[in-house]
Amino acid sequence: MKRLLTAFLIILCLGPWAMAQEGVSKTEEEVEYYDFIEPSSVTGRRKPSRKERREWRKYYRLVYNFNRVYPFALVGRKLMDQVDSTIAADNLDKGVRARFINDVEKELLRLFEKDIRNTTISQGFLLVRLVDRECGHTVYDIIKDYEGGFAAGFWNLVGKLFDQDLKSHYDPEGVDKQTEELIRIWDSGSWDEFYWEIFGRYPDKTVIVTDKLSTTSRQK
Fold first, then answer.
1. Which pLDDT does position 152 carry in this prediction?
2. Residue 189: partners with Cβ closer than 8 Å, 6 or more residues away
């Protein structure tokens, strides 16, 4: 059920923008302490140029944000598999299946509302890329399916203001190459050591409240 995974991830991806309109989203400055880390202190090299410092700050931000949001992409896939199994095992008819999916989406929103409020815009954009990697659909397509073409166009325009195209696909050999490298490091089990080498401390762990849904199908 790709719809459930996309529903879960779209809640987190669009949450920062929606909350920002209400004035409750975190600002990027609150999490950019790593902008002040000297790359030379990490690598032992010469003092970097202004351009190199800018690139390092950008990379620090990517690593920090990846550590924050990638666990949600992983748990989203696991929850999707659970829903798939329930639908297949219970052989749900169309009506019961629709109610079940609706109940699951309500549970997802209830479980992850706090995370929405604590997600920054740049973290949301990174999760946008991971949405496509996990389910093969751009966020633009997902919004269009849920909210219609006008809404999708609006959010794509918002994305472009931040140099992000919501229509573009995840590109592991291109613009998302660094993200793909981070995924490989994560999967290898050496993420904590890698993070420590950059920031001089081990990463804060993103706490996932659950990786299993309590919602069950309501057969008549």
1. 61
2. none
